[in-house]
Amino acid sequence: MSNRDTQRTRRRRGASQPTLREVAEAAGVSAITASRALNAPERVNEDTRARILEAMERVGYVPNLVAGSLASARSRFIAVIVPSLENSVFIEVIRGLQATFEARGYQILLGNTDYDLEREHQLVRTFLGWSCSALVTAGLRHSPACRALLEQWDKPVMEVMELGDGLDLNVGLDHREAGRCMARHLLERGHRRSVFVGACLDRDYRALMRYEGHREVFENAGHAAPLIELEELGSLEAGAGGLDRVMASHRDADAIHFANDDLAAGALLHSVRLGLQVPDDIAIAGFNGLPLGQQLTPRLTTIRSPREAMGRQAAEQVLRRLDDRRVTRRRRDIGFELLVGEST
Amino acid sequence: MSNRDTQRTRRRRGASQPTLREVAEAAGVSAITASRALNAPERVNEDTRARILEAMERVGYVPNLVAGSLASARSRFIAVIVPSLENSVFIEVIRGLQATFEARGYQILLGNTDYDLEREHQLVRTFLGWSCSALVTAGLRHSPACRALLEQWDKPVMEVMELGDGLDLNVGLDHREAGRCMARHLLERGHRRSVFVGACLDRDYRALMRYEGHREVFENAGHAAPLIELEELGSLEAGAGGLDRVMASHRDADAIHFANDDLAAGALLHSVRLGLQVPDDIAIAGFNGLPLGQQLTPRLTTIRSPREAMGRQAAEQVLRRLDDRRVTRRRRDIGFELLVGEST
DNA sequence: TAGAAAGGTGTTAGCGCTAACATGATAGCG
DNA sequence: CGCTATCATGTTAGCGCTAACACCTTTCTA
Question: How many CB atoms lie within 10 A of CB A326?
């Protein structure tokens, strides 16, 4: 008796939530049967299961998922790591991931690196500590320590956004080719003196890859491929500023290839204020295929990348793996589409 | 010996990650000291701590946060529940929350209800099962069961977006008053025949509150306050369609008060295509204060709500509570600002 | 009709960590 | 010098759940 009292004083939570054991007692079964009623219904007799569910309802049982994860050494978490939440591009990928994973009962753990590889490493460590079922990260670049950590991890790792030699699974598009594609289009339209305008290209290295594709095409055709780098990653205001800078420094430019649609749309809107005719005075092209570009007059020429679909496909590949089904291709090119508007 | 063998065969994970116990052995201390080296450094001698950290580094220790949470009955999770990820408004709030919580070492668990209160209840149950430290949810409306669950929960609950009688903490703005504010502005500018255009007002009930404020002002001034409801929540295309519908059904309208900036901007861009003069032929007003509206010509009259700041303030209030500091006001009006452009 | 297979449930022993209490050493004090 | 206070560390006992195995019953098979 005194022994029992001692034990009781050492309990952490006096009046905590009802536990599975209490539910089991209320239903006249063992704890493991109650556990199975939730996690493996097909292994429990139907009547027994109904009795257990009724007991759960009655006592107000809320499963302790932390305890379940510890015991089973897995959680229904999917770690998702992106470099930024400012950029609508990542939001759309997240949306695709979230919809697909949530429908299958997985919970997303969202991490934001702010374009810092060290921060990514730290997030990966934290997420591994949560026994995630899989990890999805934007991009193929990681710190060596982070790469090592992920390589020795035995669960699916998915890298999205770009295409290349990845750790495990990969769904993305070829940014260099996208840059080439737009450059070819500009040449076809007769624009020879095109300026590429990007921002923070050290962090937004996918935009840099697009520039490299652009430069390759222009230089192969015997033209220069000047580059202007802005300070702000992607906003309408920055795009307006970009147009001003091109007008000031490249007075003979006949086209601007912007790193993204936010910049391009900002420039297009600004061109109205400056009284410039697009594309006659200057052509404007973007990247992303945002709806805004299609609502402007003239419509923005851009490249649409299926971002939500990318998230969805990535999630499906990961789920295949989690279901122990064969993953047909570890690397999957999601492609892109040139949308020709009247701005070029 | 045979006993030990039996035990060994019953282990779940043969070659699992190194545990705290192994780190402790490597450093020549007990497990609890190693635990304290991470979670309560001030309670461990500096040299001992350095030795432990070095051992962790050496063996590649990754803390098992699931086990820690189970033992301590708390996690560093903050549940965040929003009705949609399509709407940039929620994204911005999430950004504010995320930045503030992440800086303090909390991890956000993001849930999307798709405007379904039953789904919200389910998410709340799941999140409580993860021993979250606090819960942030968008809006004051919940299912009765969900409300009951949250009321008996003993951790901070924060409701954001709107202002009113909440469960616990509340940071938001008065949408009815915002609707009144814009309506007064329209009257001041001489617009008497104003149409309110919203979308899915059963789900976007905050927009409905703005309409009610709008109607109150117009009716008190002796004018009608017609309402048109669109099918799509907020997109440029839907806004263009909204303008068409107003032109078709209210030929004498002199102003359109849109439920949000996406719709309003869509209409403004469409007005160019229709050859309408804004505001002379028709005035256009929005809500949200998106950057896009300020880049259009004419600039969009709208109401700016400080959404990222709302997220940040909400997070700070919750952190105060978690730090056991006094929360000065449980309800906090974040306010709004009328941005007058040339579109009215 | 014996034996195997399948179905349904229970017992036991942890998962890896930390709360609570315990202990020993050192410092501070009159 | 004995007393308490503080610091640094250790021992013990779970947190609530599920994997692994065990066992009994019922059904199927040859």
Answer: 7
Beta bridge partners of A283: A255
CATH architecture, domain B2-63:
Orthogonal Bundle (1.10)
CATH class in words for A72-173+308-335: alpha beta
Structure tokens belonging to residue A278: 């697009």
If phi over 0 gives left and psi between -120 and 50 gives alpha, with beta otherwise, what is residue B199?
beta
Q: Do A85 and B102 touch (CB under 8 A)?
A: no
For residue B294, which amino acid is it?
Q
Q: A48 touching B, CB under 8 A?
A: no
What is the CA A218 to C1' D8 distance in angstroms? 69
* CB contacts, 8 Å: B95 with chain A: 85-86
Q: Are strands A194-199 and A255-258 parallel, antiparallel or unpaired?
A: parallel
A88·B88 Cβ contact <8 A:
yes
CB B165 within 8 A of CB B154: no
In whole angstroms, what is the distance from residue B43 CA to residue B65 CA?
Answer: 20
Task: Enumerate the nucleotides of strand C whose atoms come under 7 Å of any protein CB.
Answer: 7-21
Topology alike, domains A72-173+308-335 and A175-304: yes
Distance CA A159, CA A166 (A): 7
d(Cα B98, Cα B107) in Å, to the nearest integer?
8
In the stretch 100-159 of chain A, residues with CB closer than 8 A to chain B read: 102, 107-112, 125-126, 128-131, 149
Contact status of A59 with chain B (Cβ, < 8 Å) = no
CATH node for B75-174+308-335: 3.40.50.2300
Name the residue type at position A331: R
Chain A residues closer than 8 Å to B114 by CB: none
Please name the fold of domain B175-304: Rossmann fold (3.40.50)
| Interface residue A295 vs chain B (CB under 8 A) | yes
Using alpha carbons only, what angle is made at residue A141 by residues A139 and A146, rounded to the nearest 5 degrees?
110
Q: Where are the domains of chain A?
A: 2-63, 72-173+308-335, 175-304
Walk along chain B (344 residues) and give the pLDDT tens digit of each residue.
Answer: 233 333 333 444 445 789 999 999 999 999 999 999 999 999 999 999 999 999 999 999 999 999 999 999 999 999 999 999 988 899 999 999 999 999 999 999 999 999 999 999 999 999 999 999 999 999 999 999 999 999 999 899 999 999 999 999 999 999 999 999 999 999 999 999 999 999 999 999 999 999 999 999 999 999 999 999 999 988 999 999 999 999 999 999 999 999 999 999 999 999 999 999 999 999 999 999 999 999 999 999 999 999 999 999 999 999 999 987 777 789 999 999 999 999 99
Contact of A73 with chain B, judged by CB distance below 8 Å, is answered with yes
CB atoms A66 and B130 under 8 Å? yes
B319: tokens are 């952190």
CB contact under 8 A, A237 and B269: no
Alpha carbon of residue B9 to chain centroid: 48
